[in-house]
Each structure stands twice: as C-alpha cells, then as structure tokens.
Amino acid sequence: METENAVNYSYMGSSFNGLSINDDSSAFSDCNSDRSGEFPTAASQSRRLFLASTNSENSDELIRQLVSDLGSCSIDEQKHAALELRLLAKNKPENRIKIAKAGAVKPLISLITSADPYLQENGVTAILNLSLCDENKELIASSGAIKPLVRALRTGTATAKENAACALLRLSQVEENKVAIGRSGAIPLLVNLLETGGFRGKKDASTALYSLCTIRQNKIKAVEAGIMKPLVELMADFGSNMVDKSAFVLSVLVSVAEAKTALVEEGGIPVLVEIIEVGSQRQKEIVVAILFQICEESVVYRTMVAREGAIPPLVALSQSGTNRAKQKAEKLIELLRQPRSVNAAATPSDLPL
Predict the structure, then answer these.
(1) Cα–Cα distance for residue pair 130/167, rounded to 1 Å
(2) 276 and 294 in contact (C-beta within 8 Å)?
(3) Global confidence as pTM
(4) At which residues are the ARM repeats (predicted)?
C-alpha cells in the first residue's frame, strides 16, 4: 500500500505531514464525539448516568447491564441501552475502554444494520464515540464495523451519515484500514455526502476523504466517483466556509494524473487563480502548492495557468505575503516563466515548506 506525501503544513494547530492527516485528525474537522443532544434521557436514566460518572464501581456494573440489554428481545430496552452507552462513551473517555472490554462492540455493530433509524443512529454514534480511543480502533474494525458503517452512509438519517463518516475517519487512522474502507464502497458515498450534505455533512465527508485519499487507489476511486465537481464548486464559493478544507482534499489528490485532468475538465484552474487573488493567506499558500504540483511536469498546464492570469497575483503575493508565501510564489512564478517548449526542471522538493 502506497501512501503519498506532498508538502508539510500546520493547520488549525496541528502539523500535517504531506498534507495527510496525522495522529489527531480533529484539527482538520471537529469530527470528535457526537455533538447532538437530540435524545433526552428520562430522569431515571440521567440518575444512572450520573452515578456511573462519579463512581467507578457503579460505572462498571451499569456498563455490564447495558451491554446485556443490547441483546434483549425488547426493542425499547435495546434503544435505552444503546443511547446510554453512547452517552457514557461520549462524556467520559475512560468509559470507552470499559465499554469495549465489556463486549459492547459487536452488539452495537449489529444495531447499525437495524431497520429502526433510532437504533441505527445510536449504534453508529456509539461506535464513533468508542473509536475515539486508539485502543479500540483495531477491535472495531476487526469486529466487522466497516461494511455496516458504509451501509449507514447509504441509508441512514442525516446524523447517522455524518457520524458514520466520522467513525470511518477514525478507523482510517489505522493505515491498514484505508484499503478496506476504500474497497467497501465508502468513497462514492462520502463524495455524495460532500456534494449533497448539510454543512456538517460536508465537513465530515471532506475530513474522511482527506484521510482516505493518502493512498493511491483511494485517490483514483474518489476521482472516478466525481469528487472534483463538488471540490471545485466549494472552493469557488467563499461563503461555504469550505474553501480551506476542499483545497486540502484537492492537495492530496493532484499527485495522480487522473485528478489533474478532472480538475481542468471541471474548470478548476480559474477557481484556483481567483483564490490566489482574493483568498486568505492560508488559502493562497495551499493553492500555490497545488498549482506547483499541477504545473511542474506539464507545459500544457503551465500555459493554461499563465494564460488564466496567475502571474500578477503571484507577484503580489511574492511581495506582500509571509516569508513562506513569498518563497512559494517565487518558485511558481519561476516555473510558469520557463520556456513553453522546455520541460520544467523543478521538482516537488524545490517548493519551500
């Protein structure tokens, strides 16, 4: 399995090696635990959760009972157990290991395939919350969670889809899982969520795709699924609050020729040049890095970028940007001004980090 790297960035407080998600992908999107409080607990449930949160012995006993209730013949008992386990895993990190060790993972996964949307949503979200613990990720994946999570991406409620995307992101942080998730059919569904989801759905989908597309086969799957169209549209819409995230996803894709071709076909070059003209400092820097990858081995693409008017805003950036932005802009200007008939001699390592 080949993991490809580009340039190094620090984004929202965390470092990204080669523009790929490092250990803490929450820096890219707030894909942490579930953020919804749409299922209020009854008073008796609240008291039990309070006791569990203040007393380790009570917590252990409650968790064992709830795991047992997941296998109940009563749908209501299953619903209550799934919800309480979800909340216990959300609100107290140490409970995530306790719940997994108590045998909750497989019965929770079975709920993800339930026809009851409430059960499915709580099963997905409980698995998401458990996956926040690194020790649980391998167990969750080996217990067969990937395919049910992909099913939730296809058939679930809006919240189930969003939380399934987050759970797949967490599992993808184990490198071996990236191929399995890609083969499961997740990528076209994540691309669809990126295109049609609400704001949170778009954020969660972009985060998961960013992680998954650090390997070549998943880049190809994403391009074949039509990812370039929503990426270009989101980068062109400065009101979407998705310009940065979409550009970061694009940055991991453009190392493959198929992505470069798709970007040009979707009208991406004018959008990237516009970002250099009017985008934020961060947006300008990431776009310069993208354009360098696109142009470094292609006279045709260099010509297109130059004719689109990229050189004047690049000159402005080289004069007024940060030191890093200035260096990157100067390198790209030098590349664009090379004779059109001569292949560029610059390499990715020539682009300053």
Answers:
(1) 9
(2) no
(3) 0.84
(4) 103-145
